[in-house]
Design goal:
This protein is α/β, with parallel strands linked by helices and 91 residues long. It has a single domain, classed as 3-Layer(aba) Sandwich (Rossmann fold). The protein has helices at residues 13-22, 37-41, 56-64, 80-90, and strands at 2-6, 26-30, 46-50, 71-75. The chain has a four-stranded parallel beta sheet, sandwiched between helices. The longest helix has 11 residues, at 80-90. The chain is globular and about 30 Å long. 26% of the residues are buried.
């Protein structure tokens, strides 16, 4: 399953990817706004939005090009425990 994570702590980017890989998922993490981000997101199975640590512009950019089959999960907390809970819910 492919997962895209928007927001979160920049220092934990590698840990987010490792946790997803450990659970058998491919992950892309965007902690900061990047050029052509909506094109780089693609069409993931799950889009995780850590709303406390990302701007409204990032959220709008991430949501504008999604396909209908993508499940969007919003979380106010960007901790590893909340990501584990999200991954457990979608599995």
């Amino acid at each position: 399953m492919s997962i895209v994570i928007i927001g979160g702590n920049e220092c934990m980017e590698r840990q987010y990817k490792d946790l997803c890989k450990k659970q058998g998922h491919k992950a892309k993490v965007f902690c900061k706004m990047q050029g052509c981000m909506n094109e780089r997101i693609g069409s993931p199975d799950v889009l995780v939005l850590f709303t406390h640590t990302c701007s409204h512009k990032m959220v709008q950019c991430a949501l504008c090009g999604l396909c209908e089959k993508t499940k969007v999960v919003r979380s106010h907390n960007s901790s590893m425990a909340s990501l584990r809970a999200i991954l457990a819910d979608i599995a």
